[in-house]
Amino acid sequence: MRHAHKTWLILGALLVLGTVTAFGQNSLTDNPNYRKALDMQRMAQQSYDSGDYQKATEYSKQAEELSRIALSESEIQRMRWMANSYKNRAAERIAFGEKNHAATRYPDIWTQAKASYAVAQQTFDAKAYQASVDASTKVIDLMAGVEPEQKAAAAPAPVAKPVASKALPAVYEVRLIESARDCFWRIAEYPFVYGDPWKWRLLYEANKDKLPDPSNPDLVLPGMLITIPSASGEVRQGTWAPTP
Amino acid sequence: MRSNKLLLLCAMVAMLAISCATAPPVVVDTSPKPEAEMAKATEQRAYIKENGLDTYAPDSFKTAEDYFAAANKVYGTDNVKSKELLDLALPQYEQTVTTGFTKKVAEKKAVADTSKSKADEQKAKVAAKDSYAAADTAYAKAVADAAAGQYASSVASYQEAAMKYEEAATIAAAARVQAQAALDSANASLQSTADRLKAIDTEMAAPQGGTP
Q1: Which of B172, B197, B211 sits opposite A74 (nearest CB)?
Q2: What string of DSSP letters covers A99-148?
Q3: Which residues of chain A have a pLDDT value below 50?
Q4: Based on the structure, what is the number of domains in chain B?
């Protein structure tokens, strides 16, 4: 028993260490040019302390230049991440549109959204990230007017359990769906929740204390009962359960 | 009448003869002039003036000068006395040279030491190595010259050392200001970059973040 406890402790420590290490490696402060800039800064200070002011000046200038390059690279990385994030959101909206037959229900919007999505993809590939973000934003804005189809067609989309007349559920039980794992983003997108993934933060804030790691909204576990707060004054009651 | 004139002439001749017979004898100093002593004293005086040593040893110099003036007064008329006075003046001039140089060398060394400290404060040994090395060389020569009794040369070397240390300190100070400015600028830039990178890190850690 004691041995097993010890093993778990060691495994836990290794997991934490691994996580920290992995997280550290992903930090932008690990940018090679930024690290070189820090080295140069150290060398500049050492040279200054020893009286070699000429070298101190040279190293300082190099540190500043490397710092500028690191910043520029990170800004590009940020823009790439942002463009990718927006493109993913646009892709989700396009998928939402396809699932809800937007092509036939909103032909004009759909055509424009698809064209904008293509632009978002092309500009992303061309590293024109701001243009890609703009195109993705256009897709998201266009698709904002697309309502979800009331009837859940082909997909085993969850159907709200008639808890009472037309009342929406107040609680959702997280499910294990292999093809599209439940997360706050997807849960918020369900028609009986908000029909809008952008409202994921409402769910997160209301259920933070139930999460294994309250600071990590990505980790929700199957079986967890998620409280669905009212987003715009709608009445909610009962627990949603999928149709068998 | 003619006999009167003859009488007057005779009286004048008699008076002339009497006056010539009572004139004092001319005194001539036959002893040799102390030329060597006078030349040495004159040379010493010039040397002392040239090196400004009279201000460093005013007492001995004044004594020497008094003897010298007195000796000059009787030079040629009382050569024995003049030599005696010059013999008294010369050691006082020697004393002026020794004391004067001792004090002057010490003063110039102190000036050089102050300049050296100033240069060291600025780390000029590294920052202005050529000037500092030249100063060190001059300083070492000044020390050696002083030890060898070459005081004039030692003074000149200490002065050169002080000048070179000052030059090194000035060069180092200017380089230091420039380096400090470059360091400050680099530190500010790195801090600004670090802040921004952390902000981007935080932004990118959000699950669905990003505001264009």
Answers
A1: B197
A2: HTTHHHHSHHHHHHHHHHHHHHHHHHHTT-HHHHHHHHHHHHHHHTTPPP
A3: 1, 15-25, 151-155, 157, 159-165, 244
A4: 1
